[in-house]
Amino acid sequence: MIAELALDPATGDLAFPPRIIHGIEAIAQRIRVRFRWFLGEWFLDQRQGVPYYAHILIKNPDPILISYVFRQVLLKTPGVASVSNFQASIDRRSRMLTVDFEATLDDGTILTAQAEPFIISA
Question: Which CATH number belongs to the domain containing residue 50 in this structure?
Fold first, then answer.
């Protein structure tokens, strides 16, 4: 069973008072963390993270490549068995990317989520 310390979803800091989360809540938190993790950011393994600077935070990003990158992030998240529904949409006017997905977890539970939008280019 997956167990982790809860993080505040707004700040990413440890939640206060500290508490342990399990199951679907822990996996959803892992996905949120992985979506915010830049490639090369972690000094212990710089191969980990999303290649934001190379493929996403650029002028005219490729939507197909963006979908591939985020789908791979989901599939490589411990606890996620498969991704059955996935859609990344770009609003070029507001420069926002939204990722919607449905993932099947290792225990068979279905996680349906929408990642928070974020700016994709300056």
Answer: 3.10.450.40
